[in-house]
Amino acid sequence: MKPRTSLKHIPILGSLFVLLLSSGSALHAQTAAALCTPSDYKIVSLAIIAIQCDEDVSHLVGEAQLLDPASGPGKPVVSSIPVAPYKGASQWLTIDLGAGSPPVPGGPLQLGKKYTLAVSLHPPGLPSPPGTPPFTSQIETNSTVAVAPAIALSSKSKFEFVSHFAYKAGPGSLCTLQVEDFTGRTQTIKAHDCRVPAPVADPTRVTVTDLHRIASSPEDLGSFILTLDNANKDTQQIPVGVTNLEDFTGKPVKLDSKSQLVPERAPASKDASNYYVNFNYAAGKGAKPGWVLDGKVAPILGKLYHGYQISPSAFADVGQNQVGSLKYTDIIDFGGSLVHMYRPSNFLQGFLVSPGITYETDQEFDRHNLLATPDFRYNFVGLYNPRQRRSLNKFSRELEIAEGNKILWTRANSRPAFFGYVLDFHTGFELGGALKDTVVKASSGKATLPLSSYNIARIVPQVHGLLELGRFSIDATGYARYLTTVENTVLEHPDHTLSLKRLHGWNGYSVITGSWAFDPAGHFAFTVSYKDGFAPPKFNRVNTVQSGITLKY
Q1: Which of 121, 242, 125 is CA-nearest to residue 190?
Q2: 439-455, pLDDT tens digit by residue?
Q3: How many angstroms separate the CA atoms of 530 and 547, rounded?
Q4: pLDDT of residue 334
Q5: Sequence-distant (≥ 6) Cβ neighbours of residue 21 within 8 angstroms
Q6: What value, to the nearest 5°, has the Cα angle with vertex 396 and ends 390 and 399?
Q7: What is the per-residue burial (b if ≥16 Cβ within 10 Å, else e) of 406-433?
Q8: Residue 79: which pLDDT band, with cuts at 50, 70 and 90?
Q9: Are 436 and 451 in contact (CB under 8 A)?
Q10: Which backbone phi and psi does 390 adopt, to 5 degrees?
Q11: What DSSP string describes 64-95?
Q12: Which run of H or E residues covers position 344?
């Protein structure tokens, strides 16, 4: 009899794992050489600005200059401006304009103008690293607010009104939204659950040292959230104002005329969904009804922590009975992961690092595998263009042309892109082992068979592709899983007898899913899936076509 497990590949796999982690760290170091890549900003008062970086800047301080492009280059309005990390928000910096040179206690900013901030960063007590130029951030003191869909449910929709200006006050829990249609007719809509997460009641008394007491993260500054019942919401309406909503200057906010009250589109695929349910049901002559449930729950928890997003997860592909070719892979996974996106270069535009942990079992709970599951996703230039992104780019181009020709242009004039596509690549690992010996029982009869514990060290290359054509889409994922150690599994034969099988080497698995969306947002769809291959923990052969209804958010 062969040895129960083989450990000779574990050092090699460990070396590969460390190498990949090291390369991820090197990419981080390469990105950190820029110190800060500005991505957003918040104006708290005429003297205080917060700037968001793609990188973790919680360990850096610096100095800045405020430049007015209208005054010409080399003539700062204020220089020697102190820059400090935002307490509790690792990707944000605070800029104390009033404490610069010359000092302007009330703040040097003037409404309606555009400025440039040139910022030099360095560790506390040390000069800036040699050869590191200051980064620049364009600041516009315009309080125009954009409207973004936050959550769109079947009975209500939640919207966020996002501004670069902090809000001074909100209208209360019940508020009134002013809207107009594309003919210019105005009306009011009652909204509820209205709130400003971080109001700045008196901007003249706010200092950078106590700013974190107002907002745990600057993302809450300039955020106003309300909820509309779908029965009261017309998707062709444009928001023009919210009664009693004021920015930090005390003026009513102005809503972006390009905004429109449309629910957020559903995620393009299962992989991009936070909540996914696919239900299939079948019945046949002389057989019990059979069903298959393929589901995913992976909510995003809280805000970024040192650039990482925390997400617990639960996955299941389970069923009951078998009718004809209706089969299921019998997977249940519980776990969680941290997610962080690096942007190494113009060619590799996204490098998504997702270290995680997973408890892997099946519907009968006779497998107990505990695994470390790091995953690395590569997004190359030009390969991420789903319909939603292409539609936004298309509208932006059309709007620019319309404005150049002085033509009124809104989203109602722009048709969404018909075609979209995504292609990404992964390198994953599943490292750990079975926690204990178990006994496997046949689904029918009295047959049982002991299943000894074993080590697990799998390399999991993965390719994912998506093609969108209007409401129709095809999503395909292929896993080329390589088992570097011998794993044990129990197979059940048609006569319900059991046999032990020892697995090693390649065990591929693929899923191709075609979907037709019932609703324009794509949350509900009729799907047909083809599944083929061997999936853990059982590695039973699956070769089947399933059809059913899918819900995704």
Answers
A1: 242
A2: 999 888 889 999 999 99
A3: 9
A4: 95
A5: 374
A6: 140
A7: eeebbbeebebbeebbbbbebebbbbbb
A8: very high
A9: no
A10: -65, -35
A11: EEEE-GGG-TT-EEEEEEEEEEPTT-TTEEEE
A12: none
Q: Are 83 and 119 in contact (CB under 8 A)?
A: yes
- Helix, strand, coil percentages, rounded to 5, for the chain: 10, 50, 40
94-106: per-residue pLDDT in tens?
999 999 999 988 8
Place of tokens 């200051």: 134
Of 121, 64, 143, 59, nearest in space to 97 by CA: 64
Query: CA 90, CA 75: separation in Å to the nearest integer?
Result: 31
Query: Do you find a cis peptide bond into 537, omega within 30 degrees of 0?
Result: yes
> How far apart are the C-alpha atoms of 79 and 63, rounded to whole Å?
8
Three-state DSSP class for residue 31: helix
Q: Which two tokens stand for residue 538?
A: 């059982």
Query: Is pLDDT larger for residue 477 or for residue 72?
Result: 477
* Cβ contact 228:150 at 8 Å: no
Higher pLDDT, 207 or 323: 207
- Does position 375 have pLDDT exceeding 70, yes or no? yes
DSSP assignment letter at 250: S
Q: Quick one: pLDDT at residue 238?
A: 64
Question: What's the chain's average pLDDT?
Answer: 81
Q: List the structure tokens of 549.
A: 């209804």
Alpha-carbon span 93 to 101, nearest angstrom: 19
User: Residue 149: is the preceding peptide bond cis (ω within 30°)?
Assistant: no
CB 61 within 8 A of CB 80: no
Provide the 3-class DSSP secondary structure of residue 445: coil
Q: Which two tokens stand for residue 201?
A: 């009641």
State percent of the chain over pLDDT 70.
80
Q: Is the pLDDT of residue 482 over 90?
A: yes
Half-sphere CA count of 11, side-chain side, radius 13 A: 1
The closest of 214, 175, 209 to 197, measured between CA atoms, is 214
Mean pLDDT within 497-521? 91
The model scores a pTM over 0.85? no
Helix (H, G, I), strand (E, B) or coil at 279: strand
What stretches of 415-489 show up as alpha helix (H) in DSSP? none
Cα–Cα distance, 392 to 396 (Å, whole number): 6
